[in-house]
């Protein structure tokens, strides 16, 4: 059975643009679960794999459960060269979760992503739509406190 919010989103995306549909569904805090993606595929008239391919390709979409606050830290080469790995470890320690996981209170999910267009301030991450750069392990607790 199609979730009512998903049904409404599908109703005003008559052109069947999968990227826009998936983004809006996720922006409404609905996980892109297998069932939701199957509903979207059926409604738009494409295969499940067409929907899954898009949902798993773009860094701003996630087929994993997402939290109220979505942390996306860049793991591409420029950020890697600026030690994003130690920042990732600091986030893991602060939240007690690994990339791809969600905190028990569902306040945060944590994802590794490709370049977010902030190479000039590498290592960089986004929390929801806000970018943070020149990250160090020492800055992580203070940044995350803004969202707790
Ligand atoms: S490589 Fe990390 S933001 Fe571009």
Describe, in plain words, how this protein is organized in 3D.
The chain has 148 residues and is of the alpha+beta class. It folds into two domains: 4-57; 69-145, Glutaredoxin (3-Layer(aba) Sandwich). Helix content is 44%, strand content 12%. Strands 2-1-3-4 form a four-stranded mixed β-sheet, covered by helices on one side. Strand 3 (125-127) and strand 4 (130-132) form a beta hairpin. The longest helix is centred in the middle third of the chain and has 12 residues, at 84-95. It is elongated and about 45 Å long. It starts with a helix and ends with a helix. The model has no long low-confidence stretch (mean pLDDT 93). Bound molecules: FE2/S2 (inorganic) cluster. FE2/S2 (inorganic) cluster binds next to helix 5.
Question: What is the straight-line distance between the termini?
Answer: 34 Å
Strand content: 5-15%
Number of strands: 4
- Going by helix content, strand content and strand pairing, the class is alpha+beta
Mean pLDDT: 93
Percent helix, as a range, is: 40-55%
- What quaternary form is this? single chain
CATH topology-level fold name of the largest domain = Glutaredoxin
What compounds sit in this structure? FE2/S2 (inorganic) cluster
